[in-house]
Structure formats: C-alpha cells, structure tokens
Amino acid sequence: FRELNDKFGIAQCLDNLGSHKLMKGEYEQAKTLWQEDLVLRRELKDKDGIGWVLTCLAEQAFWQGDLETGFTLYADAKKAFRDVGNKWAVSMTISGMGSIMLAKGEFEQATKLYEEALAFGRDMGDLNAIAGRRYDLARVAWSRGDYDKAARIYEDTLEFIRREFNNKGAIAGTLFELGEVAWAQG
User: Fold this and answer.
1) Which residue of 42, 60, 131, 166 has the smallest Cβ count within 10 Å?
2) Helix and strand tally (H, E) in the chain?
C-alpha cells in the first residue's frame, strides 16, 4: 500500500498491526502505529476511521493505566461516531467509558454509562451488546460488594443468552463469573 500511496490501505494495515502489538503487550509500539493511522484518517477525512483509531488509542491508554487520557479519547471517538451515525460504535465507546469509571471506582457513573450503552444495544437489537452491558452492570454490583445483586444480574444474563442466541462462549464466561461471585460469598 505504501508503494501505491494507498492511504486508506495503509491505515487499515496500521489498525491491524496496532491491535497485534497491543495484544502482545507492546503498548508503545501500538500507540505509535495508531498515531500514524490517525494522521492518515484525518487526511482522508474518514470520520468513522478516526473514531475507530481514537477507540484503539483509548484502549491502549486504559491498558497502561492512563484512565484520564483513555476517557478523553473514548469521548472524542464517541463524537466522531455520532457524527457519522454509527450507533454500534457509539455504544462501544460509551461502554469503554463505563469501564474506565469502574476502574476508577466511580460506580454510579459506570452504572449510568453502562445503562446508556445497554439502551443503544436494545435499540439496535444487538443481542451481544445487550448481554455484554448486562454483564458489565453485574461487574459494577460485584465491585461494590453487592454479591447478591451481581449474582441475580449474571443469572438473568445467562438466561437471556441461552434464550436469545445460545452463545456457548458467553454462557461459559457468565457461568465462570457466577462461580467467582459464589466464591466471593464463601
């Protein structure tokens, strides 16, 4: 793509390379790749792409513990996605913002953000998003030490997953979390 000066193709490759580096724990290399990607997306005026790269950079900041930068980047990504009408991505960024609030111990704010993302999931009929945000709300209850509420939400989520789309991975993950809550309860 560089030989062809295909900026969109280069940007797409940078997305994937950045994700690969992030998964390997090579955070600074991921950041460098995504910063180059962001420059290209801005040159191309690719708002959806800009939103995606800002989301990637937000996740990289989150993984490195820079919660303030992560939150700001998620908020910027959310605006970019709203501008192009990408509801799924708006929901994803709101969920990311909720995860940052949860990591900061700001449970009320995390709950509000997860509920907002859940509403997007319901509006879109996105079963994975609905299950995921329910799962997130259970994590908030668990983090607060409200194990009974966390267990109820996980059980409801498990029933929802089984009834609506029978995703075996999601079922296994939810059962695992129910086990963790039971363990925390003694």
Assistant:
1) 166
2) 9, 0
Q: Check: CB of residue 47 under 8 Å from CB of residue 88.
A: no
Alpha-carbon gap, residue 131 to 140, rounded angstroms: 15
- Own/partner pairs for 100-104, CB < 8 Å, 24+ apart? 100/62, 100/67, 100/70, 100/71, 100/74, 101/71, 102/136, 102/139, 102/140, 102/143, 103/62, 103/67, 104/67
Give me 133's structure tokens. 């945000």
User: 63-91 burial, b if ≥16 CB within 10 A, otherwise e?
Assistant: eeebbebbbbbbebbbebbeeeebbebbb
CA 146 from chain centre, in angstroms, equals: 23
151-176 pLDDT, tens digit per residue, is: 999 999 999 999 999 999 999 999 99
Tokens read off for 103: 């990591």
